[in-house]
Amino acid sequence: MSHTVAAHTISELAELVSQIIHTRQTVLPRRLGDPGPSGEQLAAIVGAAAAAPDHQQLLPWRFVQVPASARAALGQAFALALQQRDAAATPEQLAQAREKAARAPLLLLAVVRLHDDKADAEAIYSADVPPHERIVSAGCAIQNVLLMAHAMGFGAALTSGKALQSEPLRTLFGLSANEQALAFISMGTVVRTKPPRVRPETAQFLTVLGY
Ligand SMILES: Cc1cc2nc3c(=O)[nH]c(=O)nc-3n(C[C@H](O)[C@H](O)[C@H](O)COP(=O)(O)O)c2cc1C
After folding, report:
1. How far is the CA of 160 from the centre of ligand 1 (A)?
2. Alpha helix (H) residue ranges in the chain
3. For the whole model, what pTM was predicted?
4. Helix and strand totals (H; E) in the chain
5. 183 lines ligand 1 (CB under 6 A)
6. Which of 80, 186, 190, 207 is buried most, with the most CB atoms less than 10 Å from its CB?
7. Nearest alpha carbon to residue 187 among 1, 21, 37
């Protein structure tokens, strides 16, 4: 393998990658404003997902963009989901749930396909890849997207919440029985920063077998 990539030495590349990885931080939707990524930037950001490790190349994940024209429908799904789990939700709480769909210029839903139908001849091998491996692949794809967005100067965040597994949201996004929504990815220009969180030390998550 060549020791240079696009005219950078390995050490220059490692330094760049390290900077991108370690300076990324969650920027929650309320801290994101216009502009969001252009179409071309979005293609590069979401395209980074394609480089994720994918056992048996199943492509077990997908992203659904929620454009401005669909934000009201998403807000309605959030409100319905709240109503279903709390019949006593107040109009203010429902309005707040609706408002969440309007935040951040760019909104994506990350979805994982946990199983394949064995009856599908094309899926005969894919049935061997268990759900946890598919979720790992999805996590790698999501991190590629977050890092690419950060490298291009955008803030981004993952958000989940109870509505994610609700029937109104599943229906809105047309999720099939073998799919699960993993998280929303919000993206935009950082309008308010916050101090980075303290990261764990390597010793907290690395051990050596036998010691
Ligand atoms: C699957 C997933 C779902 C998340 N959902 C939320 C969420 O609903 N609300 C939130 O504030 N942060 C959410 N986060 C973001 C984490 O809170 C955040 O990554 C963590 O605080 C570390 O911050 P950092 O990304 O700046 O290092 C989620 C992260 C993951 C991996």
Report:
1. 8
2. 10-23, 39-47, 71-85, 91-99, 131-151, 167-173
3. 0.94
4. 6, 7
5. yes
6. 186
7. 37
Q: Where are the domains of the chain?
A: 26-68+104-193
User: Would the CB of 96 count as within 6 Å of ligand 1?
Assistant: no
| 143 CB near ligand 1 (under 6 Å) | no
Determine the Cα–Cα distance for residues 80 and 171; give it in Å rounded to an integer: 12
Torsion sign, CA atoms 165, 171, 172, 177: positive
CA of 57 to the centre of ligand 1 (A): 27
83 lines ligand 1 (CB under 6 A): no
Convert the pLDDT of each residue in 39-77 to its tens digit.
999 999 999 999 999 999 999 999 999 999 999 999 999
Cβ of 28 below 6 Å from ligand 1: yes
| Domain 26-68+104-193 CATH (choose: 3.50.50.60, 1.10.1660.10, 3.40.109.10, 3.40.50.10190) | 3.40.109.10
Q: Do the strands 61-65 and 32-33 form a parallel or antiparallel pair, or are they unpaired?
A: unpaired
Q: Give pLDDT tens digits for 22-32.
A: 999 999 999 99
